[in-house]
Amino acid sequence: MTKIYTVILAIALLFTGVYAEAAVKSVKLFIDNQLMMVEPGSILSNGQVYVPIRVVAEHFGAQVQWDDKNNAVLINQQQGDLYLKGQNVPGGSSGIMNNLVKAAELKDILDEDGDGELADYRNGRSGGDDIANDPLVVDIRNQTDYDTSHIPGAVWITGVERIAEQDSIDQLNNLLNEHVKNGGKKEIVLYCYTGNTSGLAAGVLGAKGIPVKSMMYGFDIAWQGTKSADKAIRADMEDSGGNTIGCGG
Ligand SMILES: [Ca+2]
Ligand SMILES: [Ca+2]
Fold first, then answer.
1. 109 CA to centre of ligand 1 in angstroms
2. Ligand 2 ion local residues (Cβ < 5 A)
3. Over the stretch 21-37, which tens digit does the pLDDT of each residue have?
């Protein structure tokens, strides 16, 4: 559970009928007629109602982050814009390409000493790789495929369909915090089979403020090379005047 969950912000609700009371009372929170079950919950104290800001803000599409350095709560509805401009992941070039990583680049990041053993600082290993520039690598393929073979050091928490659910996001944040605590980079790299669904999933998670990239062309095409991209169909095209242009091979 991240630190932000413990932050309760005062919502100035000075309305008729609420009087200063010494005792703290718990208060039910309904959003769109649905009772929110969240701990710590809402309270009434000294005439003010305090509600957990994360559950409210996220319900209405905003993202909430805790800024430890400035001791501040950041509520933002522009994370999608930042992601599309490549500003979701710190450093690197700006632009959407900043959110993509080539398999060969990822391999080099995970195997600095070039001995073929990736992320060889893991338990029971004693190689010369450096965790400092390593992202948390997350496999979003089916679990059986992950269990059969995956990128060394990659973790699996759920398939792509559930990766954006709050439980999954909490798990991702917890794993990323642990990874950073162990000396790793504050960045997640997702991969799937061909790079298509991981690109989609990275967009969704990036719009929620998670520092995430997608591995281009995925496990089957770029990492294993067991699949190739679809064959080009070479169909006709048009220019801006509507004139047909033959493909011409
Ligand atoms: Ca190595
Ligand atoms: Ca490394």
1. 10
2. 109, 130, 133-134
3. 458 999 999 998 989 88
